[in-house]
Amino acid sequence: MAAASGDVILHEVDGHVGIVTLNRPEVLNALSLELMVELVERLEAFDADPAIRVILLSGSERVWAAGADIKDMAEASVFDMVERNQFARWEKIKRIQKPIVAAVSGFALGGGCELAMHCDVIVASETAKFGQPEINIGVMPGAGGTQRLTRAVGKAVAMDVVLSGRFLSAREALDAGLVSRVVPKEHFFSAALALAKSMATKPPLALKLAKEAVLKAHETTLSEGLEYERKLFYMLFASDDQKEGMRAFLEKRRPDFQGK
Ligand code: CO8
Fold first, then answer.
1. pLDDT per residue as tens digits for the range 132-180
2. Is 93 exposed, middle or buried (0-12, 13-18, 19+ CB in 10 A)?
3. Which burial class, exposed, middle or buried, applies to 49 when counting CB atoms under 10 A from its CB (0-12, 13-18, 19+)?
């Protein structure tokens, strides 16, 4: 793990997987301004690194992230908030092209839940708790919670969570469609890493374009989305990996994808 003591973000590389770990345990990984700057820098560095095919974002077993750092915001004015323009940083996470797997254990609240929803696949420990409790501190979700949660789980559950501030258990989150897999807490990291490694055996360009196409489903009409999908599908026939993948299938061998 590449880190010095006091680092709020840790990172390491395992094969083709870039691993990023939130590291402010004393405040339950609250997403301070500093942490968000470092997180985005690290995600962008992995996104630009050709050796990395998939990114794994994790917290600790106790907590994923308990939201934006309330100390950073408690005395802020509307002018401070506008001047900080923090959401520009979140927009950069949205623009990461490689798949991001979230390994979520413990609390994923407020900005923490929103950060998990910026990831592409959420693997949750059975102890995970998802919520948008901003209503309890006089505000409301601001990094996409009202939009992404509603698209993920539908209006009924989203309204319940956003207006009451209650937490969803991992099982509820699975049933509602917010997370893809729930695993025993002792395996939350290894299960997410295994998934990320398995994805990293796939052709990198197809991974990126497939991610882009799925995300497009939230942004457009069905017919425009289908058209978009078709064009990306055609584009993959310009890649060596398409030839390799199909030939390997026909030759009954494992494909060797080069990311070209
Ligand atoms: N910000 C700052 N510090 C925090 C935060 C936080 N979000 N959450 C926990 N901490 C600190 C506590 O103050 C405490 O510090 P200390 O030991 O110095 O008192 C330490 O972490 C441990 O926390 P608790 O003692 O409260 O631990 P418990 O196990 O009793 O409770 C909870 C855990 C339920 C998670 C509780 O800490 C809690 O409710 N936290 C706040 C959750 C919350 O309201 N999150 C939403 C924040 S607002 C937000 O995310 C808006 C996002 C907008 C977009 C982002 C723009 C930047």
1. 999 999 999 999 999 999 999 999 999 999 999 999 999 999 999 999 9
2. buried
3. middle
Sequence-separated (6 or more) residues with CB below 8 Å from residue 118:
90, 93, 94, 100, 143, 144, 148
> What is the number of the ligand 1 atom nearest to the C-alpha of 133?
44
Cα separation, 38 vs 36, whole angstroms: 5
Domains recognised in the chain with CATH numbers: 2-199 (3.90.226.10), 204-250 (1.10.12.10)
Nearest in space to 58 (alpha carbons), one of 13, 110, 116: 116
Instruction: Tell me the C-alpha to C-alpha distance, in Å, between residue 228 and each of 59, 195, 199, 219, 245.
Output: 34, 27, 23, 11, 22
Q: Determine the residue of 70, 78, 135 to mutate for testing ligand 1's pocket, defined as the one with the most ligand atoms within 8 A of the Cβ atom.
A: 70
Interval 3-15: pLDDT, tens:
555 799 999 999 9
pTM of the model: 0.96
